[in-house]
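Recap for those who missed Tuesday's class. We walked through two folding examples back to back. For each one, the amino acid string is listed first and its predicted structure tokens come directly after. Nothing is annotated here on purpose, so try labeling regions yourself before you check the end of the notes.
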Amino acid sequence: EETKFIISICKNNNILLVVDEVYRELYLEKLTPSFLRYSNNVVVISGLSKSHCMTGWRIGWCISNTNKLIEPIINTHQYLCTCAPYLSQKVAIKALSNKEHDPKEEIRIKLKYNYELITKALKISNLKYLIPSSAPYIFIKIDTDDQLFAEELLSDKLIVIPGSFFGSNGEKWIRINYGLEKNILMKGLKILINKIKLLTN
């Protein structure tokens, strides 16, 4: 519904839509349809950095249903760099060609496990939270200045992102990444929950 709403606004105002779908494969329940399914006036950007844990390998792409939207990107790109590094290309081919072992499915299963761990702990602690449909992040309500709270957590060697960095709707929220090893995730979560409880008592 949100996708269709965004596309309708862009269509009515003749706006070219550029969408980052790099997290799309990391879904919790079901794969979200691509914006390409609903519009020809859209360019989708994606890559292997999240779905295959290949951050830094510089393998990505732009896709559109309309050739004329991609042509200027190709023309600009060829003056910036010739192509992706040779080694990155070979690794990407291997990652995308292995039919017996699907790395993105393995990553997705681990994330789903972590998600269930963390949401159970947040529910027990009666904390309000929001989750995206496809990304290893959770927003947690803290009812205090999110930037100051994030700074306080640094003294406990815990890094979170203030919600206000994402706009005014994020004020008094923090964002955490649950794409970690279980022992690190639970250690960080314990510190975080204890700190929030101190604020509310």
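Example two. Treat it independently of the first, because the proteins are unrelated.
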Amino acid sequence: MQTIDSQQPTGILNPQASTTKFQLARHAPSHDIGAFVLRYWIITWDLRGQPPYTQEVVSHPCVNMVFERGKTLIYGIADGKSAHVLAGKGRVFGVKFRPGGFYPFVNMPVARLTNCTMRLEEVFAVDSAMLEAQVLAAADAPAMIDIVEDMLRAHLPAPDPQVECINQIVNHIAASQTIRKVDEVARHFHMSARTLQRMFRQSVGVSPKWVIKQCRLREAAARLHADEPVDWPRLALDLGYFDQAHFIKDFKHVVGTTPVTYARHPAEAQARSGEQYHVHYD
């Protein structure tokens, strides 16, 4: 089992505070499962005697299957930020599908699942309560992964070359922070913008434009955690914005506060955003 560096950026807001509230471990899937699954993630926490903690995340273009006591569900992409309230003591196991990697299991437009959830029984021939109990009772991460991978292998679809194409596109957008328009992405991959948009609506669940914006904002949040003075006009330009005003508007729309407020007081900014979503996670 390969453990993934938990220090890699994940879009977690206010990461300094989060390190005192929960532990996050991430693991790579087996080779065959990796054609559809990006990684597994496990969150554990013990907040007994403390107030509940709401952790917020700038969403990725990925569907998650989450095993949590009494709440085991498949979560579509949240089109804004996503968050989860942690209370008491607990453990959650998540399967993060690759962008486009969930579509071959359901063969329906994944856009129908955006901001929504599905029961495992709607996709897999399983008893979700029984599977949930087995996963959460497992002794350690390898045992949890083995149980979930056995289930996935029993329902593994045929290889889908479009999944790899979509991931190349998403990785290109993430690496090329100056991309501003969907047309630029479509030209780079020698397809029309309409074809690209249709592919993402069907297989990913959000638009390429959404992916461009979210990649920018995850990078912005990561930079604002650095203990360095911020050149705001330079930051906006680096992230592909024409001016500061558009950057501030997008950041506030997703994060719930201005970049300046978030940079100075990320924990307070998160608390003041006032948004309580119950969708997931890493």
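Answers for example two:
DSSP finds twelve helices and nine strands in the chain.
Residues 109 and 202 are 4 Å apart (CA to CA).
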